[in-house]
Design goal:
Blueprint: H1 2-22, H2 45-57, H3 62-86, H4 89-110, H5 118-153, H6 158-197, H7 201-211, H8 214-242, H9 249-267, H10 271-416
Helix pairs in contact: 1-2, 3-4, 3-5, 4-6, 5-6, 5-7, 6-7, 8-9, 8-10, 9-10
Amino acid sequence: MKKVLSLFVAVAMLWVFSVPVMAQTEEPTTVNLPDPGITPNSFWYFFDVAVDNLALLLTFSTDARIEKELEIVEERLAEVRAMALEGEFEAMIKAESEHEKIMLKLKAEVKDVSGTDSIGELKRELEIERKIKHYRDKVGDVEEELEIKIKVKGEITPEQQALIDSILASLSTQIGEVEIEIENEKGKTKIKIELETDRSGDEVEDELKIELRITEEEIEDVLEEMTEVQEDLEELAIEAEQAAVTLPDAVVATINDLLDQARAAFDAGDLEQANDLTDQADDLVDDLEDQVEDLIEESEDEDEADTEDSDEDEADTEDSDEDEADTEDSDEDEADTEDSNEDKADTEDSDEDKADTEDGDEDKADTEDSDEDEADTEDSDEDEADTEDDDEDEADTEDGDSGGGDSEGGDSGDDED
């Protein structure tokens, strides 16, 4: 078994040293994160995860395991960031899932934190709490960085943006669960301190914070956050003014009032109250920023719609002009058709006139023929009359001949007598 384990460790170490060669080129970042190494979109990612889990398995001290787990979650955060920038959203989900597994282990480890005594245990819990807080700040920096870079690129859909927001929110929730667990353990430890020393657990905590210089960090953090919230509000007011959007006076007044209260608490030395009030003001600014963005988008959509309507009206006008031109062309065509019909009618009239002329000529010819026929008839009648005259003459002649015969007969009779 030991030989198998040793062999696996050797292979794992060899793989670790080969990671830089296989790691993908990363976009520079202002966030202090480790190199993501083998990313979730690689076939070998499962081996990278196995190496991390083996490293935890071979770490036996609770404090050392917590430190190792904090290193691993930062690597997972780097992977989430890299996959978001590359648009590898499925791989981003995989990195977030592995991040959650480590955070669950860290949450369990916090319960086993110990020290030389109760005060030492509280001190160690405060140190872990500070590291968790620093890690939360890195998650916030990554979120801001992605928001800026992705917005500039403008290459993702609303659904993909919602997925990114959901994953980042999940990371924040996982951190919050660990913070709650640490706070619970601190409470238990402070109770033990009070039972063992008869001292206030909160007073001991304050002393340890000063010793660890946590108080100085908290002072700096509160001052920085108050300044950032005030600047964000001022920038938002300028952006709203440029976009002709009016900020709700009541909300702005509430934000300024919370900041005033936070400054008063800070001056009184109540850093926790100052921090809580500043967080409330920051949340309102974030909500107000979302409202302004929505209003600006609506205004842009309305402008775009107006432009489209204007383009459509212009197109309609052009269509109307074209229709009018078509109507004029149609009228001209109709006029041409009428002219053509008139020309055709004129042609037909001309043809009819020509036909009438031809008919007249034919009638004239017929008349001439009739006259000729009539003349012929007259000639025929004359000829017939002549014929009749000739017949009469011939009859007369015959009659004359008959009379002559009778005379000859009488002469003959006389001769006989």
